[in-house]
Amino acid sequence: MPEVAEVAHVCAQLRRNILGHRIKSVLASNDPLIFPFLKLSTDPDKELSTFQNALTGCSVSSIGRHGKYFWMRLQPRDKSSLVLLMHFGMTGMVKLRNINSHLIFMENGGDKKRLDKLKQTEKEPSVADEEVTWPPKFTKFEMTFEDGDNQVEFAFVDPRRLARIRLLTGDSIQNDLDLLNHPPLDVLGPDYSKPRELLKQEQFTMGDPDPDNHGRPRLTLAEFNKLILTKKKPIKSLLLDQNCFAGVGNWVADEILFNARIHPAEVISNKIDNVTTIHPVIERLYENLVYVCETAVKVEGNVDHFPKHWLMLHRWGKSRKKEKPKTNDGYLLDYVTVGGRTSCYSPELQKMLKQDSKIKATTDKQKFPQGSSKECYIWSLGNI
C-alpha cells in the first residue's frame, strides 16, 4: 500500500508537472468502488458525465496531502474552487505519461527486481521504462492537462479497485484548513511528516510538496506521552491507526519501531503508567516517528536514498528467502503477526519491555548502530 512517502512523491510529481495547467479532457470509468458517488445514483452514466464536465476546463491551483490522502484544488472560470480528493487504497497509483518516477514498490518481488538491476549496474526501472502502451493496464481515470504547448497525460490505475476518488464542492472546502474538517479527512490524526510550524519555503523542486499541516499539527511530546499511555493495544496496531497517525502504514510502522528499539507487539501502557514523567522509551518512540516520516518524505520514498541502516531495505521477500534476512549492520530479522498484520523486527534489538520499575533508560551506545535512534534523527534531518 502506498504510504506517506509514496503519496508525497506523487504529489511532488503533480506539483512539478501540472500545477497551473488546465484540464483539457477527462475520462472516468463507471466504477462505483473507485467513485463512491456512483453507488446511490439512479443514473450512473449521467452522474459520471456531470463529474467529467465539472473537471474539464478547470486549472490546477494547488496540490495538497495529508497522510494517505492527496488532492488537487481546481479553479473553474468565475466559480468557487473544487477539490479532487484521492486515496490509493492498496494498489492505486498515478502515472504521468513519459515522466519518470523513481518509486519502486518493494513488495511482491519489487525488492528482487531492484537488487537484480543494481547487480547489473543498470539504471533504475521507471514508469516511462515500464509503460509501453497508454493508457496503462488497470486505468480507472484519465485526464489530459495543458499549459500552452505543453501537454501532460495523467492516469490513475488500481488493479484491486480499493482506491477512492471524490469531488468535493461548496463553501466548506474553499481552503485547506476547512477541507481537513470535511469528511473523510475530519477523522484523521496528525501527519507526523509535517512540522508543527511551517517554515519559510524556498521554491519547490524536490522533497515535501506540501509541508503545511493545515491546522492539524503533530502532537507535542507531552501530548504524545498521554496518548500512548491511554491506549491498551500493541504499539504496531496503534501506529497503524489513521485516526492517530495519518500516513503510517505497515513498512513505516516497522521502521519506526526498529529505530526506536521497541517490539511491535509491545503494549507500552501495560509497562509504563507514570503520565507525569515522560519515559525514555516513549521519548525515543516519538523522536523516531518524526524522524522516519520526515526522512522518507524528504527523499520522496526513494529507497536508494534511505539511510543504509534502515530495516525497510531488507524486510521483503520472506517466503522466497532460505535464510533469515539481516540488516546492513548484521542484525538478524524475524517476523511476527500483530493485529493481523505481518511485522518485521530484530529480536536482538527489539525486546519486550520489563515492568516500569525495572525499565532503565537506554544509554548503551553500543546497542545502537551508528546513525540510528536519536543520534540518527538529528543527523538525518540536516544531512539528507
From TrEMBL:
Molecular-function annotations in GO: damaged DNA binding; DNA-(apurinic or apyrimidinic site) endonuclease activity; lyase activity; oxidized purine nucleobase lesion DNA N-glycosylase activity; zinc ion binding
The terms describing its cellular component in GO are:
nucleus
Record's SMART domains? Fapy_DNA_glyco (SM00898), H2TH (SM01232)
**Boundaries of each Formamidopyrimidine-DNA glycosylase catalytic domain copy?**
2-163
Give the UniProt keywords, A-Z: DNA damage, DNA repair, DNA-binding, Glycosidase, Hydrolase, Lyase, Multifunctional enzyme
> Which reaction does this enzyme catalyse, per its entry?
Hydrolysis of DNA containing ring-opened 7-methylguanine residues, releasing 2,6-diamino-4-hydroxy-5-(N-methyl)formamidopyrimidine
Q: Which GO terms describe its biological process?
A: base-excision repair
Which superkingdom?
Eukaryota
Q: Which Gene3D superfamilies match?
A: 1.10.8.50, MutM-like, N-terminal (3.20.190.10)
Q: Where are the transmembrane segments?
A: none
Pfam family of the protein (one): H2TH
Similarity section: Belongs to the FPG family.
Record protein name field = Formamidopyrimidine-DNA glycosylase catalytic domain-containing protein
**What is the organism field in this record?**
Spathaspora passalidarum (strain NRRL Y-27907 / 11-Y1)
Q: What is the lineage of its organism?
A: Eukaryota, Fungi, Dikarya, Ascomycota, Saccharomycotina
